Amino acid sequence: MESIAAVLVIVLVDVGIAGILLFTNAKDDGLQRADAIVVLAGEHDGREEYALRLARDGWAPTVVLSNPYLRNDDVMEQYCRPAEGVEVICKKPPTLTTRGEAEMVRELAQERSWTKIIVLTWRYHIPRARMVFRQCYSEEAGTTVMRAMPREYEYSFLQWEFMYFYQFAGFAKAVLQGTCP
């Protein structure tokens, strides 16, 4: 029983250290002018407003909001309306995953001749989102600018451990799935 507990402690410590290095301290890209700002689904933590602010500041003329939420989602109802000076596109991805969002954005980019996008997500999601967008949006350097939501995360130790395990599992899934067709 003691050996199982020891192994569990070692795994939790290793995942925690690797998670801090890879996810909590993930580097985002400097802002660059782009054709669109893509907001990946997640918490309504101000990301929609932040994207509109970036667009109004001239970083991109279009904001794409991934919208897998229920029909009566108050936040999405508020932001999926026309905005002054910014084109807003709200669209449900074909699958409710980062991969589905990347595929959706690839289709929009092909339809609209976009060459560069800004992807807005959580800081700890950036490494996996970067990989998935390379697999399913574009492998070309400079086509995707990854940007973290400017916020602090007030997670407990167990919440961080769960988040790290989730991100590692997502990486494994992305590796197994490979590039999008």
Secondary structure: helix percent: 40-55%
> How many domains make up the coordinates?
1
The third-level CATH topology is Rossmann fold
Please provide the ordered H/E string of secondary-structure elements: HEHEHEHEHEH
Task: Characterize the overall form.
Answer: globular
For the largest beta-sheet, the strand count, sense and barrel status come to: 5 strands, parallel
Q: Give the overall average pLDDT.
A: 90
Protein architecture, described:
The protein is of the alpha/beta class. The chain has one domain: Rossmann fold (3-Layer(aba) Sandwich). Helices cover 48% and strands 13% of the residues. The protein has six helices and five strands. It has helices at residues 2-24, 47-56, 74-79, 98-112, 126-136, 157-177; strands at 36-39, 62-66, 87-91, 117-121, 144-148. Strands 3-2-1-4-5 form a five-stranded parallel β-sheet, with helices on both faces. Helix 2 (47-56) links the parallel strand 1 (36-39) and strand 2. Helix 5 (126-136) runs parallel beside helix 6. The radius of gyration is 17 Å and the shape is globular.
Give a brief rundown of this model.
The protein is of the alpha/beta class and 181 residues long. It has helices at 2-24, 47-56, 74-79, 98-112, 126-136, 157-177; strands spanning 36-39, 62-66, 87-91, 117-121, 144-148.
